[in-house]
């Protein structure tokens, strides 16, 4: 089946540093989504991307939908301790509503 | 406006027992989904319901059944639980299946002994 490769698997950074993570797929997606999951909670939507080449920001977060429609990246600028959590990318192939999730990037921020 | 709610939050079962996980959304969404989350594997789709009255298999449907009771509610049933079904289960919903932005509930943590 379709798979997403998300990297890196984990990051341990100093507060104030910028963070970058990405997802790649062997298949084309129509939508790319980025979610954050806090411990013991469900994933919360951060950014949704609907068009190839689209660059969207949400506060300190910026995400892009790759031109080939097979990849996406998420950047977090000036990280803070509350950025700690697991970040997931998800892609939607076609219009079925099904999402394919990456394995997640665990982010730890040292104050 | 509670969004997506799930019950129970925690459950421990013995092998062979059955149970139903409940999910409800108050956002008037048409499509609902059930996922399981295992360490290092992200979320995998078990079943989904594109609209009231329809259900379809996802990536890992074996050992599960679902019921779309009405527009608000979508339940997941384990008829004979197995240790391999120990996982965290998430329900999600979206306005229509053509839109990818799904909203998730808080999860049910299930342990099968």
Structural write-up:
- The complex is a heterodimer of chains A (111) and B (113).
- Chain A has 111 residues and is mostly beta strands.
- Chain A has strands spanning 4-7, 10-14, 19-25, 31-37, 44-49, 55-58, 61-65, 71-76, 85-92, 100-101, 105-110.
- Chain A is 0% helix and 54% strand.
- In chain A, the strands form 2 sheets. In chain A, strands 2, 4, 5, 9, 10 and 11 form a 6-stranded mixed β-sheet that branches. A 5-stranded antiparallel β-sheet of chain A has the order 1-3-8-7-6, with no helix packed on it.
- Chain A is globular and about 40 Å long.
- The mean pLDDT of chain A is 92.
- Chain B is mostly beta strands.
- In chain B, 0% of the residues lie in helices and 49% in strands.
- Chain B contains no helices and 11 strands.
- In chain B, strands 2, 4, 5, 6, 9, 10 and 11 form a 7-stranded mixed β-sheet that branches. In chain B, strands 1-3-8-7 form a 4-stranded antiparallel β-sheet, with no helix packed on it.
- Chain B is globular, with a radius of gyration of 13 Å.
- The interface between A and B is medium-sized, with 26 and 29 residues.
Quick summary of this structure?
The complex is a heterodimer of chains A (111) and B (113). Chain A is an all-beta fold and 111 residues long. Chain A is built from no helices and eleven strands.
Q: Structural class, from helix and strand content of chain A? A: mainly beta
Rounded average pLDDT of chain B: 93
Give the biggest sheet of chain B: 7 strands, mixed
- Please give the count of helices of chain B: 0
Work out the strand percent of chain A.
over 45%
Basic shape of chain B: globular
The tally of beta strands of chain A, per DSSP, is: 11
Largest beta sheet of chain A, briefly?
6 strands, mixed
Tell me the total number of β-strands of chain B. 11
Strand proportion of chain B, as a percent range, falls in over 45%
Order of helices and strands of chain A: EEEEEEEEEEE
Which sequence of SSEs, written as H and E, runs from N to C of chain B? Answer: EEEEEEEEEEE
Whole-number radius of gyration of chain A? 13 Å
How far apart lie the N and C ends of chain A? 40 Å
Oligomer: heterodimer
Which bin fits the share of residues in helices of chain B? Answer: under 10%
Low-pLDDT segments of chain A:
none
